[in-house]
Amino acid sequence: MPPGNEAFERVATSGLTANFMVYLVEQYGMRQMAAATLCNVFSGTSNAAPLLGAFVSDAYWGRFRTLTYASVTTFVSYLCLRDSLLTKALMILRSFLPHVSRPGMVVLTLTAAVPQLRPPVAEQSGQPLGPSGAHLAILFLSLGLLVLGAGGVRPCSLPFGVDQFDRSTEQGRRGLNSFFNWYYSISTAATVVAMTAVVYIQDSVSWPLGFGIPTALMLLAIILFFAGIRLYVFVPPDGSVFSGVLQALVAAFRKRKLRLPAPNDAVEQETLLYSNHARKSTVVTKLPLTLQFRFLNKAAIVCEGDMKEDGRSADPWKLCSVQQIEEVKCLMRIAPIWASGIICFVALTQQWTLAALQSMKMDRHLGPSFQIPPGSLGTICLMAIVLFIPLYDQILVPMATSITGVEGGITLLQRQGAGMAIAIMSMVVAGLVEKKRRDSALAHGGADGTSPLSAMWLAPQLCLMGVAEAFNAVGQVEFYNRQFPEHMQTLAGSLFHCSLAGASYLSSFLIAFVRKSTGGPGGASWLDDDINVGRVDYYYYLIAALGVGNLLYFMVCAHLYRYKGTPELEDVCKDIKAVF
């Protein structure tokens, strides 16, 4: 997908979701913690969906068809709308919709534009009375469409752009490097625009207009996408990596009673096992056989009738190659590291959600007339990332490299661990700031409980979280891409989104658990719907404590981890003895 098209889509998606928490509270009349839970579930589902999208893309449709076949049937329009004129307008728009995320945006925009699709407003207070079952059905439908769209677009957008370059030529490689630079630069800039300009329009001008602009930009993105259809390079699907993983596990189970040859010598054992393995369209780096998870090595034991005359496996569910087995081992080694990243992302998701709630009870003015929208505070975190990464690459990495001698200054696992430590610091700072905000609100707050404290007091914790993300999140992306085999790159990107999904679901569980366990008879819970009554600072400290435990767990996993292609320690010792 061209960088310009991706920028429009990023503005559309971020513009609809960045201020979603405020929209649910102010326009739908949801209780604050219920809205926070819904945001977490929606975020988690959106980030889990790319795993399914990656499977469908690799196994069946290919990247282009996955990007274009996320569409919705006509009955959604009739389920969502009552006014016949609006129904006809949506039917006209539907002819331009190749992505299912587009109709999701239309429905969500209509909830802002059509009063009948939102909860009624009380006459005396002017506040929404709360959503009914029908209102929630419309809202959930729009969110479901957005989830399906994210599942198709997120895992395929960047790889589809990479497919347009011929990496076998010098010109293609130079163009690909430029594409990556433009892709990440424009995407980040688009997110900043969405969280500032679009959120400001939603919060200060009009919710229908604030949702309508991203919807129009999404339509423009679709038009641009199809404008280049005759120029695109289409790479056919190469088969799902999940089937290969399952084949290795089944073959190892079926041969579990066999004895491995040379059980303590990886080099000799590899010569006695099945090694014929090649892929049609992917250049795969050969992985040496390891003795870790050696029960999987039995899948490569050759028995009578397992091989064809040309030396290939007669049945992949009975005989797998050493290469295929080692690829499965890569996935098994990475899984514990991946799990540790979820707690770190819990801190990130809770900062974004609760910081918006905190700012709604603080002074958000910059100057006499301008007021910062609550949903725009996350821009501080993004700007910290944008400013810190060049500083890290140009100054910190050369300094660390001269000391450690390691390419990149520190290892990929050390980079993730540093991010976890900084995330813990940010949660402690967040707890201290929240206590100050709450004390100020109780002492000096007016009838609405708003503290005179400036919302910029939230900047330090958001900056720390941005630095933590620059270490941990970027480190995770690089770690997955380097440690996964070449043909698993789509899965690598999906795994990162699954970390975000796990963090969102865990955040929802933590909110429910804390509300139930801390809200005694007649007392308020830490996460009360009135943030001034609750103790959000205690909740921040709880997440910090979980982060400490997670960091210790990660350090154990990192100590035991063996990087892809690393030979057995016993073989290294043999080579050293042979030299001397």
Automatic annotation (TrEMBL):
Q: Where in the cell is it found?
A: Membrane
Entry's transmembrane regions: 134-153, 182-201, 213-233, 337-357, 369-392, 491-514, 538-561
The residue range of the signal peptide is none
CC terms in the record's Gene Ontology section = membrane
Q: Which domain of life does this protein belong to?
A: Eukaryota
Entry annotated with the keyword Transmembrane helix: yes
Alphabetized UniProt keyword annotations: Membrane, Transmembrane, Transmembrane helix
Q: Which GO terms describe its molecular function?
A: transmembrane transporter activity
Report the principal subcellular site. membrane
The membrane topology of this protein is: Multi-pass membrane protein
InterPro entries registered for this protein in UniProt: MFS_trans_sf, POT_fam
User: Could you confirm whether the keyword Membrane appears in this record?
Assistant: yes
Q: So what family is this one in?
A: Belongs to the major facilitator superfamily. Proton-dependent oligopeptide transporter (POT/PTR) (TC 2.A.17) family.
User: Which PANTHER family does this chain map to?
Assistant: OLIGOPEPTIDE TRANSPORTER-RELATED
What name does the UniProt record give this protein?
A: POT family
Q: Which organism is it from?
A: Musa troglodytarum
